[in-house]
From TrEMBL:
Gene Ontology biological-process annotations: defense response; phylloquinone biosynthetic process
EC number: 5.4.4.2
Enzyme class: isomerase
Record-given protein name: isochorismate synthase
UniProt keyword Transit peptide present: yes
Domain Chorismate-utilising enzyme C-terminal: 243-499
GO terms of molecular function: isochorismate synthase activity
Keyword flag Isomerase: yes
Pfam families xrefs: Chorismate_bind (PF00425)
Reactions accelerated catalytically: chorismate = isochorismate
CC annotations in GO: chloroplast
Family that this chain belongs to: Belongs to the isochorismate synthase family.
Localization in the cell: Plastid, Chloroplast
Species this protein is from: Zea mays
Length: 526
């Protein structure tokens, strides 16, 4: 059921909205059995709800903590999704009060969520709109906080989608039929039933399809996902643009940045690298490898039916909302980590003191602050500039906190903050047009918002440090670099390699030299 049918956003919330908890189970196997029995009882023993629409979540607590990636690795059903929360950052600013939480009971937040199947999905070919947001929110009850829609939005929905991205549309979100929540000390296995007669999807349709999905659910993988490397080797590697074309594009951007008209202040240019490997890469195994080193990042995987998988390990938060409270961050400037503690410290100090990196970072931080101030009552920035150290790279960062006036301003926050100068440039429209003119590949969901929407809360990362894995032996890896006054094209090309290295290091090179090409155009089929 596609919940984004014409006019769906004007119909108001679905009629039935509830969460039902079953007794706790000792292990995933027992939880699967209890869910199957509960859904079978809905089908055979109970009269269908009289309401024409609704969403019901049935969940079974599991007394042990089980890795959500391992659970997802055992499943074969599509669509599938995964989102892992980032560890809280130190020294993040906070605003007084609970942001209109109304003293609600504290509920343990999932560390990671994996889901398969579609209770309801939301896909459109036009740019993501307020009507689309309302169509999603009508299925997300405020008092059922774990009923969430996971997905992503295109970086530029006004540009044409290439073949590899066409199944995603301009946006794609899904409320999973079966969902595994990994908590700090335990787990939850849940299933969701959604129906809406006005969308030609009845209660009986929903329960029957859910029964089919539950029959395919495996409790957990007997073969653990490899978290160290992928058992594959690179056969060939192509970059779009080539190094020569990159230099030309950066030089053109610098000419506009330094020109009398100052048409641009900053623009972020990207590269798409196609890796051909000797075996197919399992998206969940790649996800497991990224998660092993991504404690300070968001791991995600989105895969619609029949589509390639969009997988990433993003360090950058677009924003998080809980009730009226908003948090966001600015992230810009990149250096490698040092081989020794002293070397790492010196590299970090060079980054902090670099005038070029300070220009780029200040543009990003001030732009986000200004955008928040247009919508929010108060905005706090602290720290205003600090180092964020990741396993392979380090960045300049700033944390921002704000408070919106109304929870319905959530869409405005999403629509205003994306795209940020960290992935597009400044001024936004001039930078976006420069990207359209210069880049000859489709970014798709790369650098777009990726995350989830809930009734009283939502969280989005920026879809960077990401890759698109096709059904065959082809993987597209994306990376970008900010161009400001003082940029050196060759240094930025090296930065692209650094940002893509978390993917490249997982691929094993054959003993013979790989066939390396710098192609003008990779084509579109993945």
């Amino acid at each position: 059921m596609n919940g984004c049918a014409p006019g769906a956003g004007d119909r108001g919330a679905v009629c039935v909205r509830e969460t039902r908890a079953l007794p706790a189970a000792p292990a995933p196997h027992d939880a699967v059995g209890r869910l199957r029995a509960a859904v079978d009882a809905l089908w055979s023993n109970a009269a269908p709800p009289a309401a024409p629409s609704g969403i019901i979540r049935i969940e079974v607590p599991i007394t042990q903590r089980v890795d959500a990636v391992e659970w997802l690795h055992a499943q074969t059903t599509l669509p599938r999704c995964f989102f892992s929360a980032r560890a809280p950052l130190p020294d993040a600013p906070a605003l007084a009060g609970n942001g209109n939480g109304n003293g609600s009971v504290h509920r343990q937040q999932p560390v990671s969520v994996a889901g398969v199947g579609s209770a309801v999905f939301f896909r459109g070919t036009e740019p993501f709109s307020l009507a689309d947001w309302r169509a999603i929110k009508r299925f997300l009850p405020r008092d059922c906080p774990l009923v969430r829609a996971y997905g992503a939005i295109r970086f530029d929905a006004t540009s044409d989608a290439s073949v590899e991205w066409e199944d995603y549309g301009s946006f794609y979100f899904v409320v999973p039929q079966v969902e595994f929540n990994e908590l700090e000390e335990s787990s939850v296995l849940a299933t969701t039933i959604a129906w809406d007669d006005s969308l030609s999807w009845t209660w009986h349709n929903a329960v029957e399809e859910l029964q089919s999905t539950l029959r395919k659910i495996s409790p957990c993988s007997s073969v653990q996902a490899n978290k160290a490397s992928l058992q594959t080797a690179i056969v060939s590697l192509n970059h779009v643009p080539t190094k020569a074309s990159w230099d030309l594009a950066v030089t053109k951007a610098l000419h506009m940045i330094k020109g009398r008209q100052r048409e641009l202040v900053k623009v972020v240019l990207a590269r798409c690298s196609r890796y051909i490997t000797d075996t197919c890469i399992d998206p969940v195994e790649l996800l497991a490898c990224l998660k092993a080193e991504g404690q300070n990042a968001y791991q995600f995987c989105i895969q619609p039916p029949g589509a390639p998988a969009f997988v990433g390990n993003s360090p950058e938060q677009l924003f998080h909302r809980k009730y009226l409270n908003i948090s966001s961050e600015a992230l810009a400037g990149t250096r490698a980590r040092g081989k020794t503690r002293a070397d790492d410290f010196q590299i970090g100090q060079d980054l902090l003191l670099s005038s070029k990196e300070d220009i780029e970072f200040t543009i990003v931080r001030d732009s986000i602050k200004n955008k928040l101030e247009m919508i929010c009552d108060e905005v706090v920035v602290h720290p205003s500039k600090a180092l964020r150290k990741l396993p392979r790279v380090q960045h300049l960062s700033a944390q921002l906190a704000a408070r919106i006036r109304n929870e319905d301003d959530e869409f405005e926050i999403l629509n205003t903050l994306h795209p940020s100068p960290a992935v597009c440039g400044l001024p936004t429209e001039e930078a976006r047009q420069f990207i359209r003119d210069c880049e000859i590949f489709d970014r798709g969901m790369y650098a777009g918002p990726v995350g989830w929407l809930g009734g009283a809360e939502c969280e989005f990362a920026v879809g960077i440090r990401s890759a698109l894995l096709g059904k065959g032996h082809s993987t597209l890896v994306y990376a970008g670099a900010g161009i400001v006054e003082g940029t050196n094209p060759s240094f930025e090309w090296d930065e692209l390699d650094l940002k893509a290295s978390q993917f490249a290091k997982l691929l094993r090179y054959q003993e013979r030299p790989i066939r390396y090409q710098e192609a003008e155009n990779l084509g579109t089929v993945i």
